[in-house]
Design goal:
Blueprint: E1 3-5, E2 18-20, H1 25-30, H2 41-61, H3 72-81, H4 83-107
Antiparallel strand pairs: 1-2
Helix pairs in contact: 2-3, 2-4, 3-4
Length: 109
């Protein structure tokens, strides 16, 4: 990250006032290879529900939050509290997105 003094005066050692020339660059560069960056868990669950339905999600993930009395809200609550389950759902989402892209490419051939 490039830092420059906030004013034209030369700062002394005790008072280093700096600002970023390119704010937000650091965050975007750390998330560059994260395909889930910017996608909320609610979006993931909603899209998976639209694609598979509750029964399909229950079969794919084998989680009770999708089997017994499922809802978006209850599923989000469970997934936010359970890291292994969230990871499994995120991986299913990435797999599903890759499959959708592959199917589109196959149709265009």
């Amino acid at each position: 990250m490039i830092l420059t003094p906030m004013n034209d005066q030369t700062p002394n050692d005790s008072e280093q006032k700096t600002k970023s020339v390119r704010p937000g660059l650091e965050q975007s560069s750390t998330q560059r290879n994260n395909p889930l960056h910017g996608i909320t868990l609610k979006t993931i669950v909603t899209e998976l529900h639209e694609h598979y339905g509750w029964q399909g999600l229950a079969e794919k993930t084998r989680m009770n939050c999708f089997k017994s009395n499922p809802s978006i809200k209850s599923s989000l609550t469970f997934l936010r509290k359970t890291p292994w389950a969230r990871d499994k759902v995120e991986q299913l989402y990435l797999f599903t997105q890759r499959e959708i892209i592959r199917n589109r490419k196959a149709k265009n051939r």
